[in-house]
């Protein structure tokens, strides 16, 4: 009888331990689920903008601008209509021609595909911000010298792409320039002069 009683007590102990474990695991899972839901709700609440105009602070060409923008307003629209920086052109309005190219923290970006509310405190540089102390950027000067502008509509975006290339690679090859401007569409077909201007700005000639 003693053996059976001992076996019964061990079984009961195992059952109690199993129940405690399952109960504890269930409570832990429930707590984690509640925490995840609370965190998701907090993040969703913080991310909601609109439906009306919302306040944003933009850093454009080293100047701070406090603006009210619609949640659906693109950076290109804000630059052109609210800040009067019409150097950023809007052509296709769908990110395929790159006429609206600007820099966000030094990286090229299509302003027509970027929502202003998503820019936050990132540094925006437009074609108006390339010249420093009244002196044109070397790429701008080279575009003039090499007659790399025709109708001029794609020129600001093209200059921004080429200047960004030289900022990260001071000695580009012709292939580097071609790759840097592969997303910039020139309806006038001025690519050879654009390439020559960019290489000239880098102290090179077309090879």
Give the helices and strands, then pairings:
Elements: H1 2-47, E1 54-60, E2 63-69, H2 75-82, E3 101-104, E4 107-110, H3 116-119, E5 123-125, H4 138-145, H5 155-168, H6 174-180, H7 191-201
Parallel strand pairs: 1-5
Antiparallel strand pairs: 1-2, 3-4, 3-5
What does this entry look like structurally?
- The protein is an alpha+beta fold and 207 residues long.
- It folds into 2 domains: 52-126, Beta-grasp domain (Ubiquitin-like (UB roll), Roll); 130-207, [2Fe-2S]-binding domain (DNA polymerase, domain 1), CATH 1.10.150.
- Helices cover 47% and strands 12% of the residues.
- The chain has 7 helices and 5 strands.
- The chain has a 5-stranded mixed β-sheet with strand order 2-1-5-3-4, sandwiched between helices.
- α4 (138-145) crosses α7.
- The chain is elongated and about 100 Å long.
- It starts with a helix and ends in a 6-residue tail after the last helix.
- The model has no long low-confidence stretch (mean pLDDT 87).
């Amino acid at each position: 009888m003693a053996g059976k009683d001992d076996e019964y007590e061990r079984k009961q102990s195992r059952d109690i331990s199993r129940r405690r474990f399952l109960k504890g695991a269930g409570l832990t899972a429930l707590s984690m689920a509640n925490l995840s839901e609370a965190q998701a709700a907090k993040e969703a609440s913080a991310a909601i903008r609109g439906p009306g105009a919302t306040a944003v602070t933009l850093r454009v060409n080293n100047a701070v601008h406090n603006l009210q923008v619609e949640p659906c307003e693109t950076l290109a629209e804000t630059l052109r209509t609210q800040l009067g920086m019409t150097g950023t052109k809007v052509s296709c309005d769908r990110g395929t021609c790159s006429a609206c190219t600007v820099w966000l923290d030094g990286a090229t970006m299509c302003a027509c595909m970027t929502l202003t509310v998503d820019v936050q405190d990132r540094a925006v540089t437009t074609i108006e911000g390339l010249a420093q102390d009244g002196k044109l950027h070397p790429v701008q000067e080279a575009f003039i010298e090499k007659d790399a502008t025709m109708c001029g509509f794609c020129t600001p975006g093209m200059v921004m792409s080429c200047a960004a290339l030289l900022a990260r690679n001071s000695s580009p090859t012709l292939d580097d320039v071609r790759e840097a401007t592969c997303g910039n569409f020139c309806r006038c077909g001025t690519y050879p002069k654009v390439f020559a201007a960019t290489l000239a700005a880098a102290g090179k000639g077309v090879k």
